[in-house]
Write a structure and sequence with these properties.
Blueprint (H helix, E strand, L loop, with lengths): L1 H22 L4 H8 L11 H32 L16 H30 L8 E8 L2 E7 L10 E4 L7 E5 L4 E7 L4 E5 L4 E5 L5 E5 L5 E7 L11 E7 L1 H13 L21
Helix pairs in contact: 3-4
The protein binds copper (II) ion (CU).
Copper (II) ion (CU) binds next to loops.
Amino acid sequence: MRSRRTARRIALSATALASLVALTGCSQATLEQWGRWGMLEPASDRAPFIGNLWDGAWIASMVIGVFVWGLIGYVLFRFRRRDDREMPRQIRYNLPLEILYTLVPFLIIGVLFFFTVQSQNAVLAKEADEDVHVVDVVGQKWSWTFNYREADNPDIGTDAHTVGTIEEIPTLVLPVDEPVRFNLESADVIHSFWIPDFYFKLDVVPGLDNSFDVTPTKEGTFLGKCAELCGTYHAAMVFHVEVVSVDEYNAHVRELAAAGNTGLEGVPAFPGSGPRTEG
Ligand SMILES: [Cu+2]
């Protein structure tokens, strides 16, 4: 009698789990994303550092979580109320235990801090100046301007720019497998330059020369966003990112210049930014 009830319970749970997977439409891509703890498929050379940190933080949290849940479960059952006696034996001022309570959190924070600093150094590491394509990014309420500084590039030979507006979402075109340096500057308030698939985000602060290098590793179209609440139309501050072959990238910048978008637009004073026009 009892075993039949158990069997029915197991069958019911299995059906519920199967329906959950089926009804939520878990595709292969979704399942793979679960494997990355929700992260997108990485599309830059800096993504693995952040990805590993993310994985490690989840694993550490799960280990601590399972340990704590285990202790809670143990206490719940071991000391559940049987009569009016107070259980378990009450202790206080237990010095070794207090020291343990103090040291363990410090140890956990220390380990997380160590790996965070290591990952941060890796994602912010700079490539050699002569190897990078330079893109000056200007964040302005509420869109983005992208300046391709390719005047010294023999394959292109000119600077060119794209100015986004709130009506027209700009597209940032990048060459695959080539390092790109982003110089970030703001025309007004603090924005944040974020391409989720690159696992990279950096604040765009007025008067601060924030800069980072990244190599896109996957061709395709991605979405970029402003990740800092910057005002009324913050949500409209999106852009497209197209990662293409080097030839297509060169052609794109030449086309921009040919269409009249030569030079640099609204570029604040980065060293060697060239002529400056206020957008
Ligand atoms: Cu913004």
